[in-house]
Specification:
The chain has 397 residues and is α/β, with parallel strands linked by helices. The protein contains 16 helices and 13 strands. Bound molecules: ligand GMT.
Length: 397
């Protein structure tokens, strides 16, 4: 089977999921063609043994021509053209579009140009539905793109329900959660690293994100301040980069806790940094799944998260960590102090987090769900009904 994959290559969890899926499919013998405007971040293999050339994977760059008349780059048009060209030349059976606008839209248009001689699978990831698509002018486009896809998946039950409710779509949306490569994300003995990061035996809190407003990173910094005021010896590792980073740094200085925060920027050795840490904190204002929390869980790190979106589907309150109301900084601090102050509780939750990640959300378990959808659309079979939805596995702990 020849599969085209389009995703945002440089930024965010949807690109990570799309790239890891493509790599897994290639390992299983499919020919995978990435059609993106830059080489997907994790495809370069930075930090991976398989850096460089990967068998069965092909990269087609979406080239953007400039012309003075086009004040704004015509990304969607260029992408559609690239999809058509690659589909014809490489005899693609289907295009898997990650992120609804404009990727699913471009794929649907490409399908029309190709006279329906291709199938479209769309995966909804989060902000495409919860933020971007809610722009009133985008609503008809979103509904059209979803309903015109041959199959649609969402990464959590929350996201499926949001899509159905917000866009009134008449389309079966199947839930396929995010997955993690447990060979990369695993508990790693990182005592040396820990000694460097916490030379005075401090507890380590960790947060990874793209520092957008929706991540509410400042809540994590404020929670650290509450903990320090309670006499807890702790440090907060902040990994990643994005628009809010500057403000977060300013807040840490303003609160007088600069020395207890470490802004580490974008890191490739994530698993080792996560493994060095005691608690993963994710206070998001909206989060359709929370791939970063899953990666931490696979490294044996319990999670303290907000209660929004798909986070409570992943992080089981009182079992793999704690779930607190979004924006409640005191509750965030309180739960982290509970975890850090009770060795047995911490060990139990760390083990449960690891078990949940490595039993429920592995690529071995999740990738076949996508394969089944590909087979189904190519055989023109109908979608599974909600009653026997695949999301039931997410509920199993
Ligand atoms: O918010 C991000 O980090 C980026 C965003 C994206 O679409 O690239 O991530 C979304 O997709 C991830 C993969 O499916 C999910 O794990 C994230 O929860 C989701 N982010 C939000 O909903 C805010």
């Amino acid at each position: 089977m020849n599969i085209g994959i389009t995703c945002y290559p440089t930024y965010g969890g949807s690109g990570v999921v799309a790239t890891e899926l493509g790599k897994s499919l290639a390992e299983r013998g499919y020919h995978v063609h990435f059609i993106t405007y830059a080489l997907p971040m994790r495809l370069t293999g930075a930090g991976h043994e398989d850096a460089g050339y990967l068998d069965n994977i092909f990269y087609h760059e979406v080239e953007m021509s400039t012309y003075p008349l086009f004040e704004f780059p015509l990304y969607s048009m260029a992408l559609t053209s690239a999809m058509v060209e690659v589909a014809r030349f490489e005899k693609l059976d289907l295009i898997h579009a990650h992120y609804a606008i404009p990727h699913a839209t471009a794929a649907v248009l490409a399908k029309q140009i190709l006279k329906n001689d291709i199938k479209i699978v769309t995966t909804l990831h989060g902000t495409d539905i919860t933020l971007v698509g809610l722009e009133p002018s985008f609503e008809p486009l979103m509904k059209f793109s979803i309903e015109s896809s041959d199959a649609v998946t969402a990464v959590s039950r929350f996201l499926r329900d949001e899509t159905v409710n917000n866009y009134d779509v008449e389309k079966e949306i199947e839930v396929i959660p995010n997955f993690v490569d447990t060979e990369t994300f695993r508990p790693i003995d990182s005592r040396n690293r820990r000694r460097l990061l916490a030379p005075n035996g401090e507890k380590l809190l960790v947060h990874t994100s793209n520092f957008r407003e929706v991540k509410r990173v400042k809540d994590a910094i404020r929670a650290l301040k509450v903990m320090l005021d309670h006499g807890v010896k702790a440090k907060l590792l902040l990994i990643g980069d994005g628009p809010d980073r500057g403000e977060c740094q300013a807040l840490a200085r303003e609160l007088g806790i600069w020395q207890q925060t470490r802004f580490l920027g974008k890191q490739t050795e994530l698993a080792s940094l996560l493994s060095s840490s005691d608690v993963f904190v994710i206070p998001s204002g909206n989060e359709s799944f929370g791939l970063s929390a899953l990666e931490a869980m696979a490294c044996g790190v319990p999670v303290v998260s907000s209660d929004v979106g798909g986070l409570p589907e992943l992080n089981i309150d009182g079992e793999t960590g704690f779930v607190v109301p979004v924006g409640d900084v005191d509750a965030l601090a309180d739960r982290m102090m509970n975890l850090l102050g009770d060795r047995q509780l911490h060990a139990r939750m760390a083990k449960a987090a690891y078990r949940r990640a490595t039993e429920e959300f592995t690529k071995e378990r999740i990738v076949p769900m996508y394969e089944a959808i590909y087979e189904r659309v190519l055989n023109n079979e109908p979608a599974v009904t909600k009653e026997d939805d695949r999301s039931s596995m997410v509920e199993a702990t």
